[in-house]
Amino acid sequence: MRKPMYAMPPDAARRLLADAPAVHLCTTTPDGAPVFRTLNGAVCDDTIAFHGAPVGEKSLTLGRPCVVAWDETIAQIPSYFVDPERACPATTFYRSVQVHGVLTEVTDPARKARLMAALMAARQPEGGHVPITADHPLYRKALEGILVFEVPLADITGKAKLGQNRTPAQLVRLMEHLWRRGDPGDLRAIELVRAHNPEVPTPPFLAAPAGVTLRCLPAPELAVQAGALLATEYWNTEMSPAAIAAAHLGSPAWVAAVDAHGALVGTARAITDRSKRAWVYDVCVAPALRGGGLGKRLVTLLLDHPAVRAVRTVWLATRDAQGLYARYGFVDCATVPPPPYTRTEMVLRR
Length: 350
What we know:
By secondary structure, this protein is α+β, with helices and mostly antiparallel strands. It has helices at 10-19, 57-60, 109-123, 140-145, 168-181, 186-196, 222-230, 241-249, 294-303, 322-326, and strands spanning 7-8, 23-28, 34-39, 42-44, 47-52, 65-77, 91-102, 104-106, 147-152, 156-161, 213-215, 253-258, 264-272, 277-285, 313-315. It has 3 domains: 4-161, Electron Transport, Fmn-binding Protein, Chain A (Pnp Oxidase, Chain A); 165-205, no CATH class; 207-335, Aminopeptidase (3-Layer(aba) Sandwich), CATH 3.40.630.30. A 6-stranded antiparallel beta sheet has the order 1-10-7-6-2-3. The protein has a 5-stranded mixed beta sheet with strand order 11-12-13-14-15. Strands 4-5-9-8 form a 4-stranded antiparallel beta sheet. Helix 5 (168-181) packs antiparallel against helix 6 (186-196). The longest helix is centred in the N-terminal third of the chain and has 15 residues, at 109-123.
């Protein structure tokens, strides 16, 4: 790799490869003709395995040197995100993985079954099928009739180009632009830039009380902690922690706060159509941190979220926090003039 600053540890590269929905296989036939294919693969036992027909082009490449590659675009970065005048800084943030090796056929029936079971676990994690074993009558003939081939992960490299070549000031400016643009993927880009550049100061929109870090796109695993934090609040008495967690994962806007150990200590979410209406839900701070301003920071961040900031009307319901929300312009609905038409509000409760 030309610039070591972009290199990722092999374990991180392996995790990315294992999560890849599909990979590219690049190799040649014995007469030197190039072969480039997109395949489903499964990472298992320090190898990546594939399957295919026992005859055909892929079978001709067995024993040949190859490259297995995967990449994802994180965000397009316009030049003005970094420099207000020069075009040169325009770039793309991305992550990629490459494995160099030799394509090798797997012939042992038990190992073929194990690798195909790993492929099913990756592509169909919910199960719903009889487990794959070499001696099961559903699979014995099928395993005999397919080609299973693998590439060891001994030579694996990963690259994450996420602004490591920029100054801290440039990265703060860049993250602010990503937040304001708010395109799909921009919030994830912000979190990845912060993770790969830990020395960069916190951008102003993510400012938080000491010892706390705000997340504009919380990691999915934090939803379980949100469910536990909110399960005892009065407005969730009819909801299980699992249902609360699912609601967070299904919300177009969700922001959170974590402590120095990465544990969730605050959360706020909204459902929104990004234009006409939004409804704020589940604003909550861990009891030990209440009264320190964290709730205000969460509400400020949520209302400025790209999925909420352009919405004309934002609704919420509260029993005892009217003073907090009044600071942001919320008023009692009873004081708002009714619309110039007759209506009946209806609800379906399940």
